[in-house]
Design a protein that fits this description.
The chain crosses the membrane at residues 206-229. InterPro entries: GAIN_dom_sf (IPR046338), GPS (IPR000203), Polycystin (IPR051223). Keywords: Membrane, Transmembrane, Transmembrane helix. This protein has 232 residues and is of the alpha+beta class. 19% of the residues lie in helices and 38% in strands. It has helices at residues 44-49, 89-95, 196-199, 206-231, and strands at residues 16-21, 30-36, 52-58, 62-69, 77-83, 97-99, 105-110, 116-124, 133-149, 152-154, 158-160, 168-173, 179-184. The strands form 3 sheets. Strands 2, 4, 7, 9, 10 and 13 form a 6-stranded antiparallel beta sheet that branches. Strands 3-8-5-6 form a 4-stranded antiparallel beta sheet, with helices on one face. The protein has a 3-stranded antiparallel beta sheet with strand order 1-12-11, with no helix packed on it.
Length: 232
Amino acid sequence: ETKGYYCLISELPWPIDIYAKLINTSNIITFNDTTVQPHSNVSELELDLSIKIHRIDCAPRSHTTFTFTLPTASDTLRVLIKKKFRPDYEMMMQNAVNISQQSPKYYLDNDDDDYKIFLMGVLPGLEVDVNQSITYSFQVSSVVCKFWRKNQWNSYGCTAKAQSEADGIHCQCEHISTFAAAFSVPPLKVDHFADIDLFLTVKNNPLVLCIIIFLIILYLLLGVLLGYLDRR
């Protein structure tokens, strides 16, 4: 307070930690699916297609927790989440996280100020036999830190940290305002038509691009040939 007036602190030299308790988490949804262990002798394309894919839309500066449930203690999964593109089999072999009944959680942070699309790949654990299927289920909970700005809630400058769970949240903010914690369930889906830009990229799918270019060239050549034959 300065000379009877209150000053708004819009920016801090260091972030402050805010802890909040979430009361209502009844809208958590459970997703069920099955994944099959592929044979290593098949083609690279078949290995990539054997990966079970789930899409996650993450809110800005959110912290998302995936809690898996497996039928038996011996069942394991390999899980990997990538931003904007589909994990391939080589990535799964090198970077996937092992999920079991003893370690059932996978964590994902979106540190950007915009909504981001992530794709989660799921395969059976390495110790699972070839062609054996694993039935699994998982719950997704996402927490977001927000503050009141210009008559609406905004997450700019506030990030949900790794200590956040479905019933409590740890926020780290770079300013002081009226704060709140939000809980949401991100949608999980794969729409092969709406999400075509996520799959058909030059970097991650050069074979698909080459096939499309070949088909376009073939179509043009056939059009020229048929036009020539028609004129004769």
